[in-house]
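Revision sheet: structure tokens.
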Amino acid sequence: MLSYSLRPKTARTVFPDTGPSGVPSPFCEGSPTRLTACSPMASDLFTPLRLGPLELPNRVWMAPLTRSRAEADHVPGALMATYYAQRASAGLIIAEATMAIEGHSAFIREPGIHSAAQIAGWRLTTEAVHAAGGRIVLQIWHGGRACHPLLNGGLQPVAPSPIAITGDEIHTPEGKQPYVVPRELADGEIPAIVEGFRQAACNAMAAGFDGVEVHGANGYLLDAFLRDGSNRRSGPYGGPLENRARLLLEVIAAVRLESEVVGLRISPLNGYNAMVDSDPIGLSTWLAERLNAAGLAYLHVMRADFAGLQHGDVLTPIRRHFGGLLVANMGYDVEEANAAIGAGAIDAVAFVTAFLANPDLPERLRLGAPLNGPDPATFYTPGPVGYTDYPALAVPVA
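Predicted:
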């Protein structure tokens, strides 16, 4: 998912930092995983990193980027395989948000992983990335209230509570439309959601991925349950934070049955899709501590708000309380990324549009070479233009 059309900055909420401003001090004590990540050798973006069974040559990760290039029936094709293989020099590629369960599309032409044809289509990508020496995991996702009946055969979207997304519209085959009020999921329907994620992880492994990332960010279903601005239900999945986090933790446990490498992406501050939480710092702290027992390979944190309406330091409390690999995203340049990794504040950075426009981003960053600029007009358009035609650096002739 890419968002470049920010909502008007009418007001902002500032949440108190729980740690110092700027780059925090390392929090290496008490965790063998953290000691490895924060050792003197872990100095910058170009230091290798171990991720479970995977040896990553660098810490320049490719963030998941919705590009709307799937073929009919949400099947990934050869064009997508080319796109990802071009970017195989990333320490890790996190492939774009992919429908875990049929009937929950929130974009036009986003890929799925719930059919045999989709598994076969994704295998083109994994084989191409591996042949180019890369590593790739799949982000599995349920759109929740961000879905629309016009994208799903008339099906009403589902959510923790019947609260529609406001302040934006969704692209559909009939043009831009307002988001609709979702149907509140019954408690008895939730086990099927968990099973859908487990099956998606199983399918991802069958397609040749090196692991999966659970999409728990940006207002989609799992995030909508987690944050209190969108979850107003009662019962076992609503109310206090431990209940609101129940679905997310159940999904992680189910996905771990199928994949050794499982990551999680969260966005405690991001207001995209009309999201808000009354205490994002408290949420981040509680969740970071709870995730230590979840068996995650990494935690991927979007550190800010696309719209700039909510501000606070979520990375410091997460680093202090989470003992695993921490990957940060949003707004990093090389200097800040290297400083944060060198200080032990984070372990890697996931880059967004820089990777979209620069298939050889790690080499360009290493050399300090100029970067291609992205073309927003082609972010979601079909075909190779603005997708596989961004040039890599010229190879010097010996």
